[in-house]
Amino acid sequence: MADFMFNIAKGAFVEKFRDGAANGIVALATGMDTDDAANNAATFTAFWAGSNVEKSGGGYARKTGLTGTITVDNTNNRVAVDLPDQTWTALTGPAIVKLIVGYEEAAAEATRIPISAHDFAVTPDGSDVTAQFNAAGFARAT
């Protein structure tokens, strides 16, 4: 599950995935503000400003066009959203600290919405790196 939900996404991320089938984004950060400071970002433009640094080079490319799977859990009165696991082949470069999940309203950083941040401590060494989302989803709405 997520370390935190961005304020802009609270209560809305399930509907985003319900309405836009293949608009999920997964990005890796090598530097981060505090969770409290980072969760105020309302767009990827705002998020990647300051101390938040997206990984670059070394086999990295942001994952886009991902379809979220929505599971309604009537027993526990919640809805979970999951994404397919993502793999970066032969990844190298600086240590990764967070995995960022977002939603693409349109193909511009100013219209991409950050949804959740997850601890993802990996030091790339040329091996494949896989982000395996929790079986219960990357986040839940209750």
Shape: globular
What is the SS-derived class? mainly beta
Secondary structure tally, helices: 3
> Unreliable segments (pLDDT under 50, ≥5 consecutive)?
none
Tell me the number of strands: 11
Percent of residues in beta strands: 35-45%
Task: Tell me the span between the first and last alpha carbons.
Answer: 13 Å
Q: What is the succession of H and E elements?
A: EHEHHEEEEEEEEE
The helicity comes to: 10-25%
> If you compute it from the alpha carbons, what radius of gyration comes out, rounded to the nearest whole angstrom?
14 Å
Largest sheet: 6 strands, antiparallel
Kindly state the mean pLDDT as a whole number?
Answer: 90
Topology:
Blueprint: E1 4-5, H1 13-19, E2 24-31, H2 35-38, H3 44-47, E3 53-54, E4 63-66, E5 69-73, E6 78-82, E7 86-88, E8 96-104, E9 112-122, E10 129-131, E11 139-141
Antiparallel strand pairs: 1-9, 2-3, 2-4, 2-8, 5-6, 6-11, 7-10, 8-9
Tell me about this structure:
This protein has 142 residues and is mainly β. Helix content is 11%, strand content 39%. It has one domain (4-141). The chain has helices at 13-19, 35-38, 44-47, and strands at residues 4-5, 24-31, 53-54, 63-66, 69-73, 78-82, 86-88, 96-104, 112-122, 129-131, 139-141. Strands 1, 2, 3, 4, 8 and 9 form a six-stranded antiparallel β-sheet that branches. The two termini are 13 Å apart.
